[in-house]
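Worked example 3 (structure in, sequence out).
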């Protein structure tokens, strides 16, 4: 690339945009309805911005925030495994624990009947407006300190994973015994 061509590119005026047409929903929206874009970190365009320029000179994504959310929801409802893997990597890094699993391993341990192996309920994939996520699939570390390694993971309902949390088997047995006694006393009243 010649020096004259580089100067020509750098001298180009940038068109600042306040209202932009979303490529997905075809609505004209204010620039604040679009996510700010950061330079790409991988691939052939590493370091480049693939975006348009708002009135403040910031770079923005081509789809509005609502369309991005809907796209993520639809993608998760058809296949939650990539999101589960991504979330597990983030948690492992934050907690400083081992993470050696991949998509193929999660597909291998996914219950074939799409049911929680503990409760037996069908998993509810996707975001349910106004409903709880109790029956959505969740990646559980059987022994939390060992991290996300093959053999230490099971996919269960979110409520099962939250109830178990970091409790030991002894703690869960104590809880079961305590509430079984309480329920028996109430039933005998």
């Amino acid at each position: 690339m010649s020096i004259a061509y580089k100067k020509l590119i750098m001298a180009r005026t940038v068109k600042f945009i306040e209202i932009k047409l979303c490529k997905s929903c075809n609505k004209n929206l204010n620039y604040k309805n679009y996510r700010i874009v950061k330079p790409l970190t991988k691939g052939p365009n590493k370091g480049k911005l693939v975006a348009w320029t708002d009135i403040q000179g910031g770079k923005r994504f081509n789809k509005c925030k609502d369309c991005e959310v809907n796209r993520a929801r639809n993608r998760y409802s058809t296949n939650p495994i990539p999101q589960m893997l991504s979330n597990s990597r983030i948690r492992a890094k934050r907690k400083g624990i081992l993470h050696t699993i991949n998509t193929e391993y999660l597909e291998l341990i996914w219950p074939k009947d799409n049911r929680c192996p503990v409760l037996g309920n069908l998993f509810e994939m996707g975001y349910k407006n106004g409903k709880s996520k109790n029956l959505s699939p969740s990646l559980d570390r059987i022994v939390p300190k060992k991290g996300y390694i093959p053999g230490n993971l099971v996919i269960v309902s979110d409520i099962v994973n939250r109830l178990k949390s970091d409790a030991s088997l002894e703690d869960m047995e104590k809880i079961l015994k305590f509430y079984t006694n309480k329920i028996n006393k109430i039933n005998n009243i």
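Notes: The mean pLDDT is 85. The domain at 80-186 is CATH 3.30.40.220 (Herpes Virus-1).
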